[in-house]
Each structure stands twice: as C-alpha cells, then as structure tokens.
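The freezer alarm interrupted the setup, so I double-checked each line after restarting. Inputs confirmed:
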Amino acid sequence: DSGVTQTPKHLITATGQRVTLRCSPRSGDLSVYWYQQSLDQGLQFLIQYYNGEERAKGNILERFSAQQFPDLHSELNLSSLELGDSALYFCASSVVRTSGRDEQFFGPGTRLTVL
Amino acid sequence: GQNIDQPTEMTATEGAIVQINCTYQTSGFNGLFWYQQHAGEAPTFLSYNVLDGLEEKGRFSSFLSRSKGYSYLLLKELQMKDSASYLCAVMDYGQNFVFGPGTRLSVLP
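Predicted 3D structure, all chains:
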C-alpha cells in the first residue's frame, strides 16, 4: 500500500458524459501527478500540481482539467468523453525534494470504461 | 521532441542476470527513474539516477550515462516475482515526466 488513495476504482459511463476522479496523496506529500495508461500508448503524464498550484503540464487534452484543493487532495475532470478515453488513470504523489530525487508513489488507479 | 526507447519484451531464466536498456532524447534532463509495474497494478519506484554512474540497491542496479542519453536496469538473481513491466522515465527541464513504453520481462523457471 503506497498510501495514495484513488476513488472510484472502476467507472463505466457513456460517450459525451463527464466524470470526476479523486485522489488523496500520501500524508506530507505536497505534489500530485495524474497519468493515463492505455494499452496502446503506455503511461502518459497529464499534469502535476504542487501545493495547490499547477506545476507542469503534459499531454492533457483540453476536455480534461484538474485541480488540487487546500487539503491537498486532487480531482481530475474528464468531459465530453470519447471511446478513446477508456484507460487506467493513475494518481501519484511526492514530497518534491530540492535535490530533485522526486520519488513518486502511485495510487491503485481508476479504470474508466467509456461505452 | 521527447523520445524514450526500451525493448518491448525480454525473457530470462530464474537465477540469471538481465539488463534492460533505455535510451532517451528529451528537452533537458533532471533525472531518470525506473519503475516496476505488475500487470493490473500501479507502478512502484525502483531507482533514481541524476549523475553518471551506477546506483546499487540490493538485487537491482541502475546505470546512467548522460552524454550518451543511456541508462540500464540490471536485475540479479532473478526470481519469478520479477516478471513485470519495467518503465524508464525522464524528468525534463519543464518538470514533465516522460515515460518509455516499458519492457515486459518474463522470468522462466
């Protein structure tokens, strides 16, 4: 158990819908990362938040958005869902050390199925 | 552009040594990470390299050559439980994490 929690574990929805994925980081970790993992594309970095502020942005679609709240939990919002959005979505957290050794701890993931 | 290459699949025998290579071309370099991921599970951190050389951690070692854009993960005394995907990831100057496609390792008895 990494200490990172994600809800829900599974989500089944229809095209065009909107869903929210939730992540609680490890106690003491200030940074949260979101990743998408699909069979044909591997692990894709979406976005990073640090202490409530967006810190880095990867291959995140405009239909997707995220935020980190004052209690440091984070939500990933996916809207206008398409079949291709079906994937495993991971959240990870880290302390963010000044040394750069930013070991990330991954949550168990949310499996999203868009029908 | 950002690019990380790893072999797609590797097979080795229990008790043996295997080396998984990773080459990268990224927008700057702020560190290289190796993760292990069992099927259907979350990735778990294995190692971190930011300076050239070898980092050893039990049965796992990781090597980095920044001038060559090259790293490898060395797994010794292979066990059946080491059958998993191994992901190479680079943090670039923008603090973005770029993951390689992963190498699926099968350990045979």
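Quick read of the result. The first strand of chain A starts at residue 5 and ends at 7.
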